[in-house]
Automatic annotation (TrEMBL):
<keyword id="KW-0805">Transcription regulation</keyword>
<dbReference type="InterPro" id="IPR047057">
    <property type="entry name" value="MerR_fam"/>
</dbReference>
<dbReference type="GO" id="GO:0005507">
    <property type="term" value="F:copper ion binding"/>
</dbReference>
<dbReference type="InterPro" id="IPR015358">
    <property type="entry name" value="Tscrpt_reg_MerR_DNA-bd"/>
</dbReference>
<dbReference type="GO" id="GO:0003677">
    <property type="term" value="F:DNA binding"/>
</dbReference>
<dbReference type="Pfam" id="PF00376">
    <property type="entry name" value="MerR"/>
</dbReference>
<dbReference type="GO" id="GO:0045893">
    <property type="term" value="P:positive regulation of DNA-templated transcription"/>
</dbReference>
<dbReference type="InterPro" id="IPR011789">
    <property type="entry name" value="CueR"/>
</dbReference>
<dbReference type="Pfam" id="PF09278">
    <property type="entry name" value="MerR-DNA-bind"/>
</dbReference>
<keyword id="KW-0963">Cytoplasm</keyword>
<keyword id="KW-0238">DNA-binding</keyword>
<dbReference type="InterPro" id="IPR009061">
    <property type="entry name" value="DNA-bd_dom_put_sf"/>
</dbReference>
<keyword id="KW-0175">Coiled coil</keyword>
<dbReference type="GO" id="GO:0003700">
    <property type="term" value="F:DNA-binding transcription factor activity"/>
</dbReference>
<feature type="coiled-coil region">
    <location>
        <begin position="81"/>
        <end position="108"/>
    </location>
</feature>
<keyword id="KW-0804">Transcription</keyword>
<dbReference type="GO" id="GO:0005737">
    <property type="term" value="C:cytoplasm"/>
</dbReference>
Length: 149
């Protein structure tokens, strides 16, 4: 099947299929006499594997490792589990980091009056490199502090 048919059958865009070939994640497709890529059912199966791994957030490098384990019939499931657990740990760290960002932004948004005045704790926090400072109650440098109404 051609690249368009393989893309449709696998759920991976033709552009990504070419990228996966170029990066060595998948072997180069066979070519027809006229030079077009020719994909087999096995190629499509591998592309589906890659798509599902990408859907779970695995990086290209991690997918390469997973493909190697998938192809290795002497593998131990402990290797696969270790790789997947490492990915879970990374995801949980990202979740924690995102929750921390959301909490910080929530504090800043709640401290911002959102009115006609120029003072904005959100911008103030972005302009300083001091961490953990309560910026919500400090006027911007060089600005005239106005009483809160």
């Amino acid at each position: 099947m051609n690249i368009g048919q393989a893309a449709k059958a696998s759920g991976v865009s033709a552009k990504m299929i070419r990228y996966y070939e170029q990066s060595g994640l998948i072997p180069a497709a066979d070519r027809t006499a006229s030079g077009y890529r020719d994909y087999s059912d096995t190629d499509v199966h591998m592309l589906r594997f890659i798509r599902r791994a990408r859907d779970l957030g695995f990086s290209v490098a991690e997918i390469s490792d997973l493909l190697g384990l998938w192809r290795d019939e002497t593998r131990q499931s402990a290797e696969v589990k270790r790789l997947a657990q490492g990915h879970i740990d990374e995801l949980e760290k990202k979740i924690k980091d995102l929750q921390d960002m959301a909490r910080t932004l929530t504090v800043l948004v709640n401290a911002c009056h959102g009115d006609h005045r120029p003072h904005c704790p959100i911008l103030q926090s972005l302009e300083t490199d001091i961490e953990n400072e309560d910026l919500a109650i400090q006027p911007r440098s060089g600005a005239v502090a106005r009483p809160v109404q």
